[in-house]
Amino acid sequence: MALATVPLVLMGGAGVFFAGKADVEEEDGRDEWLCDAKGEPILVATSYETRTIPKSAVVDEDVTMLRIPVGPVGQTRLRTYAFSKTKNADHAMNPPSTRVFSVTLPRPLGLVMAEDRSQKRVVVESVASTGCAGQQLSLASLGGSMEAPKPGDVLRAFTCTVVVYKAAALAFGAQRPERTIAMYGADGQPWPRAADALRRGVKADGDVTLVLERYDNKTVEMEPS
Question: Would the pLDDT of 20 be above 70?
Answer without folding.
Answer: no
